[in-house]
Design goal:
Its main location: cytoplasm. It is an enzyme of class 6 (ligase). Its EC number is 6.1.1.4. Pfam families: Anticodon_1, tRNA-synt_1, tRNA-synt_1_2, tRNA-synt_1g. The protein is 35% helix and 20% strand. By secondary structure, it is α+β, with helices and mostly antiparallel strands. Among the domains are: 142 residues, no CATH class; 204 residues, Isoleucyl-tRNA Synthetase, domain 2, CATH 3.90.740; 43 residues, no CATH class; 151 residues, Isoleucyl-tRNA Synthetase, Domain 1; 61 residues, Ubiquitin-like (UB roll), CATH 3.10.20.590. The chain has a 4-stranded parallel sheet, covered by helices on one side. Strand 1 and strand 2 form a beta hairpin. Helix 4 packs across helix 5, helix 21 crosses helix 23 and helix 23 packs antiparallel against helix 24.
Length: 906
C-alpha cells in the first residue's frame, strides 16, 4: 500500500510523468484484498494533510498555467502585513478565496491564485528600535514564519508568484511607477499643513494621533506644521472614480456608497468677498448660495496666507497667540464634532457683495487651509456649526430662509419686499422660502440657488463650481522603512528623476535606529549626497519614502508577471489576467486601499500599460472572527478586558477583584485576550475541520462567532463521511454502469438526492458564495447515502464519488485521500466539477394531499406528471374519499397541481 508507483495522466496541455504515493484499488480484486486494511484505517487528519500537501507540491498542482486556452479566473485575497503570526481572521479570508480557486479549477478555468506581503511600514521600524535588529531582518523572518503557516493550511496558492513589497526587485517598479506619475504631471511637491511629531521628527497620519492629540509612538503633543511634501493628484480622477462606481456591479452597495461619500462631489458656488482697504478678495466655496444674504462673518484658516495681512495691529498679539495654540493641535482635534469650535477676530472686514455690508473676518480652529479655499462664510442661521459658533461669540444670527408655512400669508409681489422678523432657537437647515434677500426674496431656495449663482457670474464676483471632498494624496513619509522617492534635488536643474537604469534607489543598510531625530536617511550623508544625473554638479537625494498604500495599490498587477526583471509587467499577460475576478478582504479597506488601487489602474491605463478601467470585478468583504470575551464593566480602558484563559466559564469573575464579568462576542484581538490560535485548532482537529467550521458557521460577509462545540460538530461530520466512503471502498462493490431506464424506486430517489445536491451546491458557490448552505447540502447528501437501501447499486457508487468531489473545495485533504481510496489515480482537484442531470430531479411520484371541506383526510402517491383531471380521478378513487363522500353531494372540487385536491361537500 505504501509503495511508490509511476503513473501518468493528461492535463489540458500535456501529459505529466509523476511519482506519487497512492492506494491502487481500481480493480474489484484489489478492493476485496485490501478491505480489512481500509476498514481499520481511521480518519487521521495530521497524517493525511501532511501527505497531500507534499503530493500537491510535487505535482505543482497549484502553479499558474502558462497557456491561455481556457477561460481565466483570478482569485485574490488582500495580502497581509507580515506581523509574524496568522490569526483566525487570516484563516477565514484565505480559506474563502481558496474554496473559490479550487472550484474554478474543477470547473475548467485556468486560475491565478497568488500570495504576497505588504511588508513596508512603521511596525518594522519600531521593531528595529525596540529589538535592535534591522527592519529587513525582522520583516523577512516574519515572512518566512507566516509563509510556513499559510502552507500548513493547505491553500492552493501559486508560491512561484510570491512578492514582497520591501524587496528591491519589487520596489524598483514602485519607484518606476512613481516616475510615470511624475511624467504625467500627477506627482508634485507643495507646502502642506501636516501632523508633526516634534520628538520623532516625522509626519503622522491622523490615525497615528490619539484623542488627546499625542503621537501614538513618542507620546509627544502633535503640532501642525507646514512642510514641503509629495502629493499624487488623485483629484484629477475624482469624477471618473465616482462615475465608474456604476460599473462595479459585483461590489457591495455599502462599499460603493462609502467611496462615493469619500469622494464627496458637491455642486455649489465660488463667491468672492472683497477685503476692506485691500485689493485682495477672500474666496469661499458654498453649497448654500441661497443663504448668502445671511452671512454675518467670514472665517479664515489660521494658516491661510491672508490671515496675517488682514489682522489689525491691536489684534496682532492675540491672533499670533491663537495661531501658535492651534498649531499644537492635530487635524483630528480641530475637526472633531464633539469639541467646541474656537476662534478669534482678526480686526479685518470684508464686504458682502450681495448686500454691500461689511462683516468681520475671524480665524477659527475648525477651518483647515488645505480643505476647499481655506475660508468659509459664516451663516449661523442656516448651519448648525455656525450657529453654535455665533451664539458662543455673540455674532449676529440673521435668518434668510424660512419654512413655507411661516410666510404663507405674505405678499411677495409688492414693489418693496417686506422685512420679516424670524426668531428660531436653532439653525434652520431645510429648504424653504427666501426672506430679507433683496430681489430673491419670496423665491423657493432651490430656484434661488441657480438665480443667485447666475447673478454672481453676471456681476463678476462668483461662479458655479463643482467641488470634491477628496483631497490630493499626501504620499511623503519621513521614515526609513519604505520605498525611497526616486528623485534628486539639484541646485541648477531642480527636481531631477532618477534615470530608469539607476533603479532601484536602494535603502542603505548601514543605518542606526534610535527612534529620535527623524528618518535615518537624512543623517546618512554618503547616501544623501550624489551628483545630478543631468548636469553632474553636487546634489541631494530625496529622503522621504512613500506611503505604504503606494505599494499595495498595484501589487495585484505584479502577480500576473511576478518574475519579470525587464518590465513592471508584460502588458499582454496583465491584460489577459486582469481584472481580478474575485477579490476578498476586510471592510476596513473599503475606502483608501480600494480607492487608491482604482486610481492607479486608471493612471496606468492612460499611460498605455493597461486596457481596462477597474481592477476588481467582484469584491467580497468578509466579516470578522469574534471570540467569547469577558469584560469588567467597572473598569475602563484596556484593563476592562479579562483574558478568557483566566476565567472560569461556569462563574466568570475578575481574577483580581472577584467582580462578576460580562460575557459577549467581540473581534478577536490580543488586547481582549479572546483569540484562538489557528495552530491549536489544527493540531486538535485538523485543517479540513477548521476550514469547514469557518465556512459553515456564518455567511462570508457576516461576523463569525467562534464556538468550539461547532468545530467539534464539523469534525464529527468529516468522520461520518470518512466512514461512509471507507465502508463502501472496503465492501468491494462492483462499479458497473447504471442503466437509467431500469432503476428501482430507491435508486431513483437516491439519484434525485445526488443531483439535487450537485445543483444546490453549485448554485450556492456560483451566486453569493453561500458556503454555509452548500455544506448543509453536503450533509443532506451524506444522510441520503447513509439511509439508502441500494448500497450495491451503481447509483450509490455515483453518490459516493459525487459527495467526495463536491467536498473537495471545502475539505481538500480528506477529499483527495477518499478519492484515492475509491481507486482513482489522479487528484480529485484535477477532476471536472460534477454536473447535475435535470431529468434526475423530476420525481416519478408525488405525495398528493386529499382534503374534504379544507380538512386533510389522507395522503396518496400519484404520478408526478398527472394533470388536473387525472389528479381528481386518483383522489375520487381513493378508499378514504369514497368512505367520507358516501351519501354526500360534491358541490366543488379544487385541484392544486402537484399539491392537493379538496372536495367541497354538503
Amino acid at each position: 500500500m505504501d509503495s511508490k508507483s509511476k503513473i501518468s495522466f493528461k492535463t489540458p496541455s500535456q501529459t505529466l510523468k509523476i511519482t506519487h504515493l497512492s492506494i491502487r484499488l481500481s480493480m474489484t480484486e484489489n478492493l476485496k484484498a485490501k478491505s480489512n486494511d481500509i476498514a481499520l484505517n481511521k480518519y487521521s487528519p495530521a497524517t493525511i494533510e501532511e501527505k497531500w500537501q507534499k503530493t500537491w507540491s510535487e505535482l505543482n498542482l497549484d502553479n499558474t498555467p502558462t497557456e491561455n486556452n481556457k477561460p481565466k479566473f483570478y482569485a485574490l485575497s488582500m495580502f497581509p502585513y507580515p506581523s509574524g503570526s496568522l490569526h483566525m481572521g487570516h484563516v477565514r479570508n484565505y480559506t474563502i478565496t481558496d474554496v473559490i480557486a479550487r472550484l474554478k479549477r474543477m470547473q475548467g478555468y485556468r486560475v491565478l491564485h497568488p500570495m504576497g506581503w505588504d511588508a513596508f511600514g512603521l511596525p518594522a521600524e519600531n521593531a528595529a528600535i525596540d529589538r535592535g535588529v534591522p527592519p529587513a531582518k525582522w520583516t523577512y523572518q516574519n515572512i518566512a514564519q507566516m509563509r510556513q503557516q499559510l502552507q500548513r493550511l493547505g491553500l492552493s496558492i501559486d508560491w512561484e508568484s510570491e512578492v514582497a513589497t520591501c524587496s528591491p526587485d519589487y520596489y524598483k517598479w514602485t519607484q518606476w511607477i512613481f516616475l510615470q506619475f511624475l511624467q504625467a504631471g500627477l506627482a508634485y511637491q507643495k507646502e502642506a499643513a501636516v501632523n508633526w511629531d516634534p520628538i520623532d521628527q516625522t509626519v503622522l497620519a491622523n490615525e497615528q494621533v490619539d484623542s488627546e492629540g499625542r503621537s501614538w509612538r513618542s507620546g509627544a503633543k502633535v503640532e501642525r506644521k507646514l512642510l514641503r511634501q509629495w502629493f499624487f493628484k488623485i483629484t484629477d480622477y475624482a469624477e471618473e472614480l465616482l462615475n465608474d462606481l456604476d460599473k462595479l456591479t459585483g461590489w457591495p452597495e455599502r462599499v460603493k456608497l462609502m467611496q462615493a461619500n469619500w469622494i464627496g462631489k458637491s455642486v455649489g458656488a465660488y463667491l468672492e468677498f472683497p477685503i476692506v482697504g485691500m485689493e485682495e478678495k477672500i474666496g469661499v466655496y458654498t453649497t448654500r448660495p441661497d443663504t448668502v444674504f445671511g452671512v454675518s462673518y467670514v472665517v479664515l484658516a489660521p494658516e491661510h496666507p491672508l490671515t496675517k495681512r488682514v489682522t489689525t495691529k491691536d489684534q496682532q498679539a492675540a491672533v499670533n497667540a491663537f495661531i501658535t495654540e492651534v498649531s499644537h493641535q492635530s487635524e483630528l482635534e480641530r475637526t472633531a464634532e464633539d469639541r467646541p469650535k474656537r476662534g478669534i477676530p482678526t480686526g479685518g472686514r470684508v464686504i458682502n457683495p450681495f448686500t454691500g455690508e461689511e462683516v468681520p473676518i475671524w480665524i477659527a480652529d475648525y477651518v483647515l487651509y488645505e480643505y476647499g479655499t481655506g475660508a468659509v462664510m459664516g451663516v449661523p442661521a442656516h448651519d448648525v456649526r455656525d450657529f453654535k459658533f455665533a451664539d458662543n461669540y455673540n455674532l449676529p444670527i440673521e435668518f434668510v430662509i424660512v419654512e413655507p408655512e411661516a410666510v404663507a400669508n405674505v405678499d411677495f409681489q409688492q414693489e418693496e419686499p417686506p422685512l420679516i422678523m424670524i426668531d428660531y432657537d436653532s439653525a434652520y437647515t431645510e429648504p424653504g422660502v427666501l426672506i430679507n434677500s433683496g430681489q430673491f426674496t419670496g423665491m423657493n431656495s432651490v430656484d434661488a440657488k441657480a438665480a443667485i449663482v447666475k447673478y454672481a457670474e453676471e456681476q463678476g464676483f462668483g461662479k458655479e463650481r463643482i467641488q470634491y471632498r477628496l483631497r490630493d494624496w499626501l504620499i511623503s513619509r519621513q521614515r526609513y522603512w519604505g520605498a525611497p522617492i526616486p528623485v534628486i534635488h539639484c541646485p541648477n536643474c531642480g527636481i531631477v528623476p532618477v534615470p530608469d537604469q539607476d533603479l532601484p534607489v536602494q535603502l542603505p543598510e548601514e543605518v542606526e535606529f534610535t527612534g529620535r531625530g527623524g528618518s535615518p536617511l537624512t543623517q546618512l550623508e554618503s547616501w544623501v549626497n550624489v551628483l545630478c544625473p543631468t548636469c553632474g554638479i553636487p546634489a541631494k537625494r530625496e529622503t522621504d519614502t512613500m506611503d505604504t498604500f503606494i505599494d499595495s495599490s498595484w501589487y495585484f498587477l505584479r502577480f500576473t508577471d511576478a518574475k519579470n526583471e525587464q518590465q513592471v509587467f508584460d502588458p499582454a499577460k496583465t491584460n489577459d489576467w486582469m481584472p481580478i475576478d474575485q477579490y476578498v478582504g476586510g471592510i476596513e479597506h473599503a475606502i483608501l486601499h480600494l480607492l487608491y488601487s482604482r486610481f492607479f489602474t486608471k493612471v496606468l491605463r492612460d499611460r498605455g500599460l493597461l486596457n481596462f478601467d477597474e481592477p476588481f470585478a467582484r469584491l467580497l468583504t468578509q466579516g470578522m472572527v469574534q471570540g467569547l470575551t469577558y469584560m469588567n464593566p467597572n473598569k475602563g480602558g484596556k484593563d476592562k478586558w479579562v483574558p478568557s484563559h483566566l476565567v472560569n466559564p461556569a462563574d466568570p469573575r475578575d481574577p483580581q477583584t472577584g467582580e462578576p464579568l460580562q460575557r459577549l462576542y467581540a473581534t478577536m484581538s490580543k488586547s481582549k485576550g479572546n483569540g484562538v490560535a489557528p495552530e491549536d485548532v489544527i493540531s486538535k482537529y485538523g485543517i479540513d475541520t477548521a476550514r469547514m467550521f469557518i465556512l459553515f458557521k456564518a455567511p462570508p460577509e457576516k461576523d463569525l462567532e467562534w464556538d468550539e462545540a461547532d468545530v467539534e460538530g464539523q469534525f464529527r461530520f468529516l468522520n461520518r463521511v470518512w466512514r461512509l466512503v471507507t465502508d463502501y471502498a472496503a465492501a468491494g462493490v462492483s462499479r458497473k454502469q447504471a442503466q437509467l431506464a431500469d432503476l428501482s424506486k430507491p435508486e431513483k430517489e437516491l439519484r434525485r438526492a445526488i443531483h439535487t445536491a450537485i445543483k444546490s451546491v453549485t448554485e450556492d458557490l456560483e451566486d453569493e458564495y453561500q458556503f454555509n448552505t452548500a455544506i448543509s447540502e453536503l450533509m443532506k447528501l451524506s444522510n441520503s447515502l447513509t439511509d439508502s437501501d441500494c448500497k450495491n447499486s451503481p447509483i450509490y457508487a455515483e453518490g459516493i464519488q459525487s459527495l467526495v468531489a463536491l467536498l473537495a473545495p471545502f475539505a481538500p485533504h480528506i477529499a483527495d485521500e477518499l478519492w484515492h481510496l475509491l481507486g482513482n489515480k489522479n487528484s480529485v482537484h484535477t477532476q471536472t466539477w460534477p454536473a447535475f442531470d435535470a431529468a434526475a430531479l423530476i420525481a416519478d411520484e408525488i405525495t398528493l394531499v386529499i382534503q374534504i371541506n379544507g380538512k386533510k383526510r389522507a395522503d396518496i402517491q400519484v404520478p408526478s406528471q398527472a394533470d388536473k383531471a387525472e389528479l381528481e380521478k386518483y383522489a375520487r378513487e381513493s378508499e378514504v374519499v369514497q368512505r367520507h363522500l358516501e351519501g354526500k353531494e360534491i358541490k366543488k372540487v379544487i385541484v392544486v397541481p402537484g399539491k392537493l385536491v379538496n372536495f367541497v361537500v354538503v
